[in-house]
Automatic annotation (TrEMBL):
NCBIfam families: malonate_beta (TIGR03133), PRK07189.1 (NF005530)
Family matches, as Pfam families: Carboxyl_trans
One MF term in the entry's GO annotations: carboxy-lyase activity
Gene3D superfamilies named among the record's database cross-references: 2-enoyl-CoA Hydratase, Chain A, domain 1 (3.90.226.10)
Organism: Cupriavidus yeoncheonensis
GO process annotations (BP): carbohydrate metabolic process; fatty acid biosynthetic process; malonyl-CoA biosynthetic process
All copies of domain CoA carboxyltransferase N-terminal, residue ranges: 1-251
Entry EC no(s): 2.1.3.10
Keywords recorded for this protein, A-Z: Transferase
Protein name: Malonyl-S-ACP:biotin-protein carboxyltransferase MADC
Length: 290
């Protein structure tokens, strides 16, 4: 597990989180290799948002970039968290699924294309509910197909986090890289508070939220793999390392029995603490590292 560098180096960092999705993709790829597909000038925007008084975006908030990392072919798929909270609808979801499917086809033709997912998303776009859900299901299937051939690395850097159906996509990735600012969970804090009440989950209590769903906790409990500082060079090094990792480990998504066994000791009538969550999942975490 990597750890962020000391505070003494803060002034020398080149923040990854402060970049837009397109710039994040460019920052990860080898210099001069960035090539965008289905970009904004192709006009692939949602046909549904304008009908509801929402201004669409000409790339539907999803960037598809082909290039190289360490000289090897990669497709980087970046979700723009600043557009509709990174939510996915018909068009953006199709771009993600289609790119992953083409990467798998590359591998079947002997081109070892790998994939990196930059996940800043609340999940399905409510304005396109069923269409978005269908697209996310296609993304899940495409990740499982591609990871048979090459690593699929997910990155959750911040500030939106990764929730909803796309948190399942994160769980299907070969490995996950997270920063301290990133968050990962099936349901977002506001949704949990709405459904279970503020006594169960106060969405305004930021230290509490990050202590359960933030990058440090997710790596410590085995639900993510690499904890890295908010720095472009550090993120790039971490992603490149994960892409070089040999295949063969059992995917996290196929180890549900171990995760369920870890939950057997949990008393649902007692409010858990971050330390208790780490204790419960220490076995799952150690077996993930094995």
């Amino acid at each position: 597990m990597n750890t962020p560098t000391s505070t003494a180096s803060l002034l020398t960092r080149d923040s990854f989180i402060e970049l837009g999705a397109r710039e994040r993709a460019r920052a990860l790829l080898d210099a001069g290799t960035f090539r965008e597909l289905a970009g904004p000038f192709d006009g692939l925007q949602s046909p549904w948002l304008a009908r509801q008084g929402i201004v669409p975006q000409s790339d539907d908030g999803v960037i598809v970039a082909k290039g190289q990392i360490d000289g090897q072919p990669v497709v980087v798929l970046a979700i723009e968290g600043a557009f509709q909270g990174g939510s996915l609808g018909e068009v953006g979801g199709a771009k993600l699924a289609g790119a992953l499917e083409l990467a798998a086809e590359d591998n079947r033709r002997g081109v070892p294309t790998r994939a990196v997912l930059l996940l800043e998303t609340g999940g399905v776009r409510l304005q396109e509910a069923n269409l978005g859900l269908a697209a996310i299901a296609d993304i899940h299937a495409a990740i499982v197909d591609l990871r048979r051939y090459q690593p699929v690395v997910g990155v959750i850097a911040g500030q939106v986090g990764c929730f909803g159906g796309m948190s399942i996509a994160a769980g299907l990735c070969t490995s996950l890289v997270m920063t301290q600012e990133g968050r990962l969970g099936l349901n977002g804090p506001a949704v949990i508070e709405q459904e279970a009440g503020i006594a169960e989950y106060d969405s305004r209590d930021r230290p509490f939220i990050w202590s359960f769903t933030g990058g440090a906790q997710r790596v410590a409990t085995g639900f993510a793999d690499v904890y890295v500082a908010d720095d472009c060079a550090a993120l790039r090094d971490a992603v490149a390392s994960e892409l070089r990792a040999p295949a063969g480990a059992t995917p996290r998504s196929e180890r549900c029995r171990e995760a369920l066994a870890a939950l057997q000791d949990y008393d649902a009538g007692v409010q858990p603490t971050p330390a208790e969550a780490r204790r419960l999942f220490v076995r799952f975490h150690r077996e993930s590292d094995a």
